[in-house]
Write a structure and sequence with these properties.
mainly alpha; two-stranded parallel ribbon; 10 helices
Length: about 230
């Protein structure tokens, strides 16, 4: 009975994603428009952990992981085209980082379920490939701004959540904070919020909203920044 009450009173996935959208917008507005208002960046520390948690949940509950991955990767590619054309930037957005996370999760599940040498090798190659892209490739492109958003810890975070739940969440956020320091430690404040998650998506299907909001809000903020220059 207590579990049923918790499911009714906790936050749904939709509610958590809306919180992530709002805090992410605050973060990007602070970064691009009001860099002196550090409070906006502090509020923004909640966004990435929530989205990472929802990526792990998406992998757990989606009926078609291939479609889920392609949707993430497609939207991420669209954002990269905007970055490249508008700012001549090769910085890889969070959707690209999370696409790598989904690939790792798929490889983890295959290794766990199949228990074959082939699946274990695929997982090892996947981990090494992610390590190369996140930590080695940026050094091989010194005259560009190529980097994966949140680096290797950011890619590992959804996979750690998927594999180890709350312990993985805490470990992943600690790795992110250790790499970037400063206010990034405040990302741990998302943990109590995520512990209220009731395991339900919510009544409305807001999937398309969440995917399209990311590139649209980036374009809008960038456009405003050009006007204010």
């Amino acid at each position: 009975m207590a579990e049923r009450v918790r499911e009714r009173t906790g936050l749904t996935g939709n509610q958590l994603k809306i919180i992530a959208m709002i805090t992410m917008t605050c973060d990007h507005v602070g970064l691009q428009l009001f860099p002196r208002l550090e409070i906006l960046r502090i509020i923004g520390r909640l966004a990435m952990p929530i989205y990472a948690y929802m990526i792990a949940e998406g992998c757990r509950h989606t009926r078609n992981r291939k479609k889920y991955l392609l949707r993430l990767l497609g939207m991420g590619t669209l954002c990269q085209l905007v970055y490249l054309l508008a700012m001549d930037s090769l910085y890889m957005c969070i959707l690209i980082a999370f696409s790598l996370s989904v690939i790792l999760i798929c490889l983890m599940d295959a290794a766990e379920q199949e228990k074959t040498a082939k699946s274990q090798i695929h997982l090892a190659l996947g981990v090494l490939s992610v390590f190369f892209v996140c930590t080695v490739l940026p050094d091989l492109l010194p005259h560009t701004d190529f980097e994966i958003d949140y680096g290797l810890p950011g890619v590992l975070l959804p996979a750690l959540i998927y594999g180890a739940g709350t312990k993985g969440l805490l470990l992943g956020l600690a790795l992110v904070a250790l790499k970037y320091g400063g206010i990034q430690w405040l990302g741990l404040l998302a943990v109590p919020l995520l512990l209220t998650y009731n395991g339900q998506r919510g009544k409305a299907n807001l999937g398309k909203l969440f995917y399209w909001y990311y590139p649209i809000h980036l374009v809008a903020i960038y456009g405003i920044s050009l006007v204010l220059r």
